[in-house]
Design brief:
disordered N terminus, elongated, 3 helices, about 20% strand, about 140 residues
Length: about 140
């Protein structure tokens, strides 16, 4: 992936992950609550070559963190909003992961479903904990 002047083009995956984190309410500090969403491919995606060794640079997964510090996930509305953010982050990561490769739409759909399902385990645990805390304070 050389440009005309011989410099290597920077892979836009990290930029798109950052943009995706911004769009989905990404984490900017380690103290904010978040759910990790990881999109994985069964095969490697070569995105460039090392400047020093010419070895291929491959991507087999993309992970983003969905921030929910602005949501009251102990409420139905907050829980649904978190679920939507997780699904949107999974869709964005899978779309980016399969971009510019030969694939069928079902690959992206399958990747999205798997990534969202795995991330929802953590999201549901956070929702359950928030609901228990809210109920404990209500007593």
């Amino acid at each position: 992936m050389n440009t005309k002047d011989g410099n290597f083009r920077l892979v836009k995956i990290s930029l798109s992950m950052f943009a995706g984190a911004l769009i989905s309410g990404g984490v900017f500090a380690q103290t904010l609550p978040g759910v990790s969403v990881t999109a994985s491919r069964p095969t490697e995606k070569i995105v460039g070559r090392s400047h020093t060794t010419d070895a291929p640079i491959v991507v087999t997964s993309i992970t983003s963190v969905v921030n929910y510090s602005d949501l009251d996930i102990a409420t139905h509305i907050g829980a649904v909003a978190l679920e939507n953010r997780v699904k949107n982050a999974a869709q964005a990561a899978c779309t980016e992961l399969y971009k510019n490769n030969q694939f069928v739409e079902s690959d992206v759909r399958s990747c999205t479903n798997v990534a969202a399902d795995k991330a929802m385990v953590s999201a549901r645990a956070a929702i359950d904990a928030a609901e228990k805390e809210k109920n404990a304070h209500a007593k």
